[in-house]
Design brief:
Elements (H helix, E strand, L loop, with lengths): L2 H36 L2 H8 L3 H8 L2 H28 L4 H20 L5 H10 L5 H4 L1 H5 L1 H14 L5 H19 L4 H5 L9 H18 L7 H5 L3
């Protein structure tokens, strides 16, 4: 192959790579704004300035493109959560261990929201966990259930007297708070007169972690002994 041919091939390869990135960028924004059902492949292709056929070439179909966004973004969140859990497991004081466990869940998502480049994915994830069709896609189960089980194990260690049902309700309550706040589009700031702003992710995380730790420590059966839980009311 001549040098001219090599350069032409390199340009074509670079163009394909650039097109793939543009498709992902367009899809991430449109899935965040319109949801999975609302974002059409045609509109995504238009936003990326590519033919529809190129979307199918790179990703197979719309669900393949949607899944590719999770494959791109999820590892960072999961890795940060696992690192946080491993740090929590080294703490002998159960109160401090619980705080670190809650931080391991909350902070990666709050930090992601605070990073403008990745803020679209935060809204996609908030939509996905409340989408009635999410179970059929299986994305949350595939990418997040394994680390969720590790969180439940850590909560059992932090709250040894908690009923199993309390641990699951507590974990999902934390998820609900997290998803609502990271998916907020301005209501919290509006109602608080600007005093509370999820985009200030460090301040937001500090407040939310404190509230969630208090709820887990002092709410329901988590603070009762096994004998008290089994006693008739």
């Amino acid at each position: 192959m001549s040098k001219r041919s090599e350069k032409a091939e390199a340009r074509r390869g670079g163009s394909k790579a650039g097109a793939r990135e543009r498709i992902l960028g367009s899809a991430e924004q449109l899935f965040a704004e319109l949801g999975y059902e609302g974002a059409s492949v045609r509109r995504i292709a238009l936003g990326a300035d590519v033919p529809i056929a190129l979307v199918n070439y790179h990703f197979g179909n719309k669900e393949g493109l949607y899944r590719a966004i999770f494959e791109l973004r999820t590892p960072t969140i999961v890795d940060q959560r696992i690192a946080g859990l491993e740090l929590a497991a080294t703490e002998s004081d159960l109160d401090r261990r619980l705080e670190l466990t809650v931080k391991a869940l909350i902070i990666p998502m709050f930090r992601l929201r605070g990073t403008e480049r990745h803020s679209w994915f935060v809204r996609i994830l908030a939509r996905e966990v409340t989408d009635p069709n999410a179970n059929a896609r299986g994305i949350v189960a595939e990418f997040f259930d394994p680390v969720a089980k590790r969180f439940l194990e850590e909560l059992r260690a932090c709250l040894p007297h908690a009923a199993e049902t309390d641990l699951h309700w507590g974990y999902h309550a934390m998820l609900g708070v997290m998803v609502f706040i990271v998916g907020d589009t301005g209501r919290i700031a509006r109602l608080s007169g600007g005093a509370c702003d999820p985009d200030n992710h460090e301040d937001a995380a500090a407040h939310v972690v404190s509230l969630l730790v208090a709820a887990l420590k002092h709410g329901g059966l988590a603070t009762r002994s096994p004998e008290a839980r089994s006693a008739p009311s």
